[in-house]
Amino acid sequence: MTARASLLSGLAASALFAFASQASDRSASLYQMHEKLLNQDGEAIDLDLYRGKPVLVTMFYGSCPATCPLIIDTLRAVERKLDEPQRQQLRVLLVSLDAEHDTPAALRQVANTRRIETSRWTLAHADAAAVRRIAAALNIQYRQLPDGQFSHSTIISALDEQGKILVQSAELGHADPEVLRAISAR
Amino acid sequence: MDRAHICLASLALVAWGFAASAATTLDAHIAGGQFDSVLPPAPDVTTTVVAPFRLDTAVVSNAEFAQFVRKHPDWRRDRVAGLFADEGYLRHWASAAEPGPQIARQPVTQVSWFAASAYCEARGARLPRWYEWEYAAAASSTRPDARDDPAWRQQILGWYSKSARGTLPVAGASPANYFGVRDLHGVVWEWVEDAGSMLVSDDSREQGDPNRNRFCGSGALSLEQKDNYAMMMRIAMLSSMKASYSSSSMGFRCASDAGKGP
């Protein structure tokens, strides 16, 4: 955190009349959300389409020039580090932040260009309200910029078979050992 | 009970009913326009355009939120999904469905972003976006944008430095501003739709910044108008809250695009 952001956080803390209560352990499963999505082939899917499998879930947008390809590379790096049976079990869900432009057709294009195997990976479109809720649940911050790009944090969440968030990683470019540990333990 | 007493009692009921529904109307119609926010839309871009919108004239009260909870029991504190609300959610209410008469007309607090969003959605509305909220809050009683008025700034800072101990004022009790909107300063913090987007940070593309990799696009935003402390406190507060958190000083109101909403 930069100096100014730290200062502001301090300000916020002292401005708090009563402290926000801590996040609780009840917040178990992402699948408590019932969001309707569309996959890259235009099929209606639920957020819990991969219930029963370990899942890596994160958010991106199709026209992202630099970091989003890196997200896909990072997810692939995790896959490569797993042994074959684990790799066959793992599922990957990428939900687009760009409700306006990332139509199923646009997502199919991304999948083809990036040679994404959609039997185990899903690129998903959600409407703007669902994008906000899913991002909030995954602790992903994002903002659309005037030029149509998005400024967003990149957090990859590893979910267990019931959708419980096991670990969240902000590391890009390589397989985060914590993510690998969480997935391998399944 | 004699007739006079009955009459008084029904008057009180009418008055209570009026106060309880005061915030539910999206009654402020705000034309919007060009606006220099304390939070610039992008690096090197200082002005944003606020589209016409409607805004509740008061923050949502406990009584209003209780109506929602009774209609949508998934949002009772004893049934809400843990993903959507922490353990502080509506903890101050007398029971899972009733705030109790002492706090009925006061602003609802101890609500998560998810709960506030669901409440507005149930009304065919949404939470205000930060720029809308800031735009409405820039007004004094006589001017739509009084931010360059030192006396107005001083008044706001006075509100923020007040001790918040004791009970909250009744929702809608503070004076209306230029747009007819109340409670924007000195009552509670308020959730906004894009609370998860404030990204308070210096340029995240800086070399050696440990947060650098967390951001895509043009990097994070920085703050302008650094002497606008009241707004910076709000942004810092919102940035420190996760969407499931609740706080005894965080409430909300609803908004809609112009021409939408009930």
What does it look like?
Chain A has 186 residues and is an alpha+beta fold. Chain A has a single domain (30-184), classed as Glutaredoxin (3-Layer(aba) Sandwich), CATH 3.40.30. Chain A is built from 6 helices and 9 strands; from the N terminus they run αβββααβαβαββββα. In chain A, helix 4 (104-113) links the parallel strand 4 and strand 5. Chain A starts with a helix and ends with a helix. With 262 residues, chain B is of the alpha+beta class. Chain B has a single domain (3-257), classed as paralog of FGE (formylglycine-generating enzyme) (Alpha-Beta Complex), CATH 3.90.1580. The radius of gyration of chain B is 19 Å and the shape is globular. In chain B, 46% of the residues are buried. The model of chain B is unreliable at 1-23, 200-214 and 216-220 (pLDDT under 50). Classes of the chains: A alpha+beta (186), B alpha+beta (262).
Characterize this entry briefly.
The complex is a heterodimer of chains A (186) and B (262). Chain A is of the alpha+beta class.
